[in-house]
Write a structure and sequence with these properties.
79% helix
Length: 90
């Protein structure tokens, strides 16, 4: 998902967007509110593996949020990462 967002930010962002704005666009992915709601439904309906489905989806959402947070911090603190994004978006 993060790799696909790189290309989406490169080709679909407004033409006047700066490299920093494109970087933030590529890092900020949707977090799955709808997925969380839908993942709780199998358990509510008594489907045998409903708890497993819910737990996997919740963990995926959690790690997605954690990864995004780490990438935003790293983008601001690590000059090498900023340089790589700059090269990609030019």
């Amino acid at each position: 998902l993060y790799i696909a967002r790189l290309f989406m930010a490169k080709y679909c962002a407004p033409s006047d967007a700066t490299t920093y704005e494109r970087t933030v666009i590529s890092i900020m992915t949707p977090k799955g509110l709808a997925a969380a709601v839908l993942a709780s439904m199998p358990e509510a309906f008594g489907i045998p593996e409903g708890t497993l489905i819910k737990n996997v989806v919740y963990a995926t959402i959690f790690f997605s949020i954690l990864t995004t947070s780490i990438l935003i911090i790293c983008e601001n603190k690590i000059p090498g990462l900023k340089h790589r994004y700059s090269r990609f978006f030019k």
